[in-house]
Design a protein that fits this description.
The structure holds 2 protein chains of 2 kinds.
Chain A lengths: L3 H9 L5 E2 L1 H10 L7 E4 L2 H11 L3 E5 L13 E5 L2 H11 L8 E5 L4 E10 L3 E8 L4 H4 L2 E5 L4 H10 L17 H18 L3 E11 L4 E3 L2 E5 L2
Chain B lengths: L3 H4 L3 E5 L9 H12 L3 E5 L5 E2 L2 E2 L13 E4 L6 H10 L4 E4 L10 H14 L3 E2 L5 E4 L3 E2 L13 E8 L2 H13 L4 E6 L8 H9 L6 E6 L6 H10 L5 E5 L13 H5 L2 H11 L3 E3 L2 H13 L8 E5 L2 H14 L8 H10 L2 H4 L8 E2 L6 H13 L5 E5 L11 H12 L3 E4 L7 H8 L5 E2 L2 H13 L4
Parallel strand pairs in B: 1-2, 1-5, 5-6, 6-7, 10-11, 10-12, 12-13, 13-14, 15-16, 15-17, 17-18, 18-19
Antiparallel strand pairs in B: 3-4, 8-9, 8-11
Classes of the chains: A alpha+beta, B alpha/beta.
Amino acid sequence: MLSADGVGIMEAARPQGWVLEPEALRLLEMSGVPVPRFAWARSPAETVEAAAGIGYPVVAKVVSPQILHKSDVQGVQPGIADSGGLTDAYERFSRLPGFEGVIVAEMLSGRELIVGAKHDFQFGPVILLGIGGTAVEVYQDTATRMAPLKASDVQSMLGCLRGRRLLTGHRGAAAVNLSQLTETVLRFSDLVMALGDRIDSIDLNPVFCSSERCVVADARIMLAR
Amino acid sequence: MNFTPLFKPKTIAVAGVSLSNERHPANVIYNKTHLRYPVKVYPVNPKGGTFKRDRVYRSMDEISGPIDLAVIAVRADHVPEILAQCIRRNVGGAVIVSGGFAEIGRVDLQEQITAMAREANFPFIGPNCLGIYAPGHFDTFFLPGERLVRPTPGPVGFVSQSGGVLVDQMVKFTEQGLGLSLAVSIGNKALIREIDLLRHLASDPETRVIAFYVEGFGRNEGRAFVELAAGIPKPVVILKAGKTTEGSRAVSSHTASLAGDYRVFSDVLAQHGIVEARSEFELTCFCESLSHYPRGIDGNVGIITVSGGHGALASDVCAGLGLRVPRLSEAVQRELRAGLSDNIRDIASLGNPVDLTGSAVDEDFVAALSVLSQAREVDSVLLLLLPYSPGISSDLGARLSYVHQQNGKPLVAYVPHVEKYRILIEGFELNNVPVASSIDGAAFMMEAMRRCRPC
């Protein structure tokens, strides 16, 4: 069952057909899916205040119901080190169409994964897990399972990935925290079941996984048409 | 719904028999059932009269006594009337061969007959289908018997959305020596669908493997199907068409693009331990293998060969499929070597593949298979038996089958399928060991068992 708050978020997203990122992050957080420390700032002063609470460096991202693909319009500024950089970014984003403020969030690191969901015509809600990042459609290294998932499903999805060794400690890199990853995917699966046929698809991409934790850096929730 | 009258009828009425056109589908069906099957058959045509010295009935109502099955091969517009007769007359069920429904846009007509049947709890197959093939009992195919390749009774229940694929697969099954318990072409599947027949075949004692050719499921129907299949102890094999139509629509998310219709289909089958066959050759190999070995394996294959080349080729095919050919431990190799005859003890290569060389005799195969059947390092054995090797006798198939039966570890043999090796092949097959006609086929038989457990 989706909470009243969750229903509200989905209802508010109807006009543009997708959930604004700060609201998507809030929905995930309510469902126990880890998200970065973030704030939705509506003025330069609010961004600086938010960053002080989060700690530099931060990433700033434009919030606009008219901008689904933020990178395409230079609407993402990572690695901002101080308040000057932050207010500059705010100034630049404010000229983009439909501007409704800025997300200020902590910078994350780790392996980039994609965790996704879609409402499949034949099988209903399905969950996707794979190697993420901007080249996700180049590598096409993903596995899909029918939701709701069990922990063993997450294990077998990881086993299906060609790039699974990237996650288990490749060339001296620390292995990602598989129990955190499993937990994250299972909580996401619960959310997807609760959303039911309200959604068309969801991309959590990237999800940064390190040896300590797995955190959703970006979330796109597309409503059913 | 009770499917017994559909699949095990004692009396059949064929609606649409023509008094003038010998090649009418209804006539073909009437002729074959009348002449060659142990059922009583009644021709039906509103004109009445006689046909081949048999009375033609004007309607179902004129026939006295029970009718288990009606085969309906009349023009689509007349189907509702015949169906109404069947329901009124308490016929057990129907196969609606006629086309002219949803496939040409007459969704209304299809919905009309489906609603009639549903209300009366009356089972029918079709429309727009070949219907039922029940080996040795009857069939409703409007294809002359002499044109069909007719599998013998056997372990595979096969359901196909396409009649053409079904008939062709009957050829493939027969070539493999694989029999059918029941085959059903479901056509437009207006009422009885894959999931209904999955449920039926799951409880049918003659069926050991359930196979499907599927083009697509309805909304959320795939979910119900895989959930049911996952709970059935019999292996379920699916050949899916339409693997490559995905990606044509513009999609707004990576997930929708990456999890295209076929990717989801394939991954969800694996998740539920349903075996996906990717070609008709795989389908045949998988059904053969799983009819003998219904339980899954991890896929650690021991290979026994008399030719190094065959061993290497088989290893490559296995590895390509995701099977492993693990190097055997020193202990197992020692044990293998101890059992071999003096002739080959020092020249055989035992790491896996176990290459007994062309000098091997029957006893060497028996000894090697005995050791591998006990070795925990492999969970299955692939035997590449090349009868050109002079030390191999015609008894070897049966002898090795007995070794296999001692502990039941899955054994698959490759023997070239030519007539002069028939006695060797039958030595295996009559003793429940599947035999492939190619190295690829043998590897697919192994792969079937690996795919037969949830991924």
